[in-house]
Design a protein that fits this description.
This protein has helices at 39-56, 61-66, 138-141, and strands at residues 5-7, 19-25, 70-80, 89-99, 103-112, 115-127. It is α+β, with helices and mostly antiparallel strands and 146 residues long.
Length: 146
């Protein structure tokens, strides 16, 4: 994975706005026959950004899964403004916009050369292996919680 940038406000942990930016180069296989990135691929980009955002706090999603802690997408909304094309250099920005007892809300923006291509939001629920909602673990909740 290419380098990414983490942004955290200098206040206390509960007041931090945790975000990161990751570079993405569009691969040929991600494009449709018209040469545009297929709409489904944006959701993969969002997942990549969430994973790197979590990793930036020192936590690997793999380790959470090993403990039986899962995050499922409960809601996602995306607004496509401009298309991305093969070999474009993109910049995905993601931040936690809200964290509750068992949910995390993210906001995403995807850019090419400073031009906004799409923006999205998602709501993730923290669940156990049986799909039951559980509290977000303290190592994550301590990072940013409302």
């Amino acid at each position: 994975m290419a380098a990414f940038i983490v942004h955290q406000e200098p206040e206390g942990m509960a007041d931090q706005m945790i975000s990161c930016e990751i570079p993405i180069r569009v691969r040929y296989a991600e494009c449709d026959p018209m040469g545009f990135v297929h709409h489904s691929k944006y959701f993969e980009y969002f997942e990549m950004a969430r994973t790197e955002l979590l990793r930036s706090t020192g936590i690997r999603y793999r380790d959470l899964e090993d403990k039986g802690i899962l995050f499922v997408v409960a809601k996602v909304e995306c607004r496509f403004r401009r298309p991305a094309r093969y070999d474009d250099d993109l910049l995905m920005k993601v931040q936690i916009s809200r964290m509750g007892r068992a949910r995390i809300d993210h906001r995403y923006e995807l850019y090419r050369d400073g031009l906004l291509l799409c923006e999205a939001t998602s709501v993730l629920a923290c669940v156990d292996r049986q799909g039951q909602v559980i509290p977000i673990p303290p190592e994550i909740a301590g990072q940013h919680q409302d």
